[in-house]
């Protein structure tokens, strides 16, 4: 969660960053995509403090990105599952991982990759034109006003 609001900014990216712009948020979403979805598993995987994790999970639930699901009654324990809104972050996570593989991975290569459940092949984020359905190179993209 960003520490300021975007009053007066008519920008969907700024509004999206209010929901997912905090440094741990997309790592939590990535972990849920990897099948890591319990509080203790997040602590172990991320090395995040308990209070920060509690805050981030509550924020993601409040934003409708994750849903808390009880999987044990005594004591009550929850897992965190992606909602449809959260699942819509899959291409964002895949694109950021792809960027990291290309520009930030060490000499041994990336430690993780996104995979197609159907065949196990690597998944790559690709931009396509909504009108002609052709792939679009990064250099062919600009941002413009709709209204």
UniProtKB/TrEMBL annotation:
Keywords of this entry: DNA-binding, Transcription, Transcription regulation
An annotated Gene Ontology molecular function: DNA binding
Organism expressing this protein natively: Streptomyces globosus
InterPro entries according to UniProt: HTH_HxlR (IPR002577), WH-like_DNA-bd_sf (IPR036388), WH_DNA-bd_sf (IPR036390)
Protein's name in the database: Transcriptional regulator
Keyword Membrane found: no
Chain ranges of the HTH hxlR-type domain: 11-108
Highest taxon in the source lineage: Bacteria
PANTHER family: TRANSCRIPTIONAL REGULATOR, MARR FAMILY, TRANSCRIPTIONAL REGULATORY PROTEIN
């Amino acid at each position: 969660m960003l520490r300021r609001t975007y009053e007066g900014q008519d920008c969907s990216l700024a509004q999206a960053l209010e929901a997912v712009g905090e440094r741990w948020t997309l790592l939590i979403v990535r972990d849920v995509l990897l099948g890591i979805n319990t509080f203790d598993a997040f602590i172990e995987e991320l090395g995040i403090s308990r209070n920060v994790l509690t805050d981030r999970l509550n924020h993601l639930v409040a934003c409708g990105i994750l849903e808390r699901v009880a999987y044990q009654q005594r004591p009550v324990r929850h897992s965190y599952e992606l909602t449809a809104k959260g699942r819509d972050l899959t291409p964002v996570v895949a694109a950021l991982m792809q960027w990291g593989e290309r520009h930030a991975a060490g000499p041994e290569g990336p430690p993780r990759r996104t995979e197609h459940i159907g065949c196990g092949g690597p998944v790559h984020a690709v931009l396509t034109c909504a009108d002609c359905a052709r792939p679009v190179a990064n250099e062919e993209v600009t941002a413009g006003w709709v209204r």
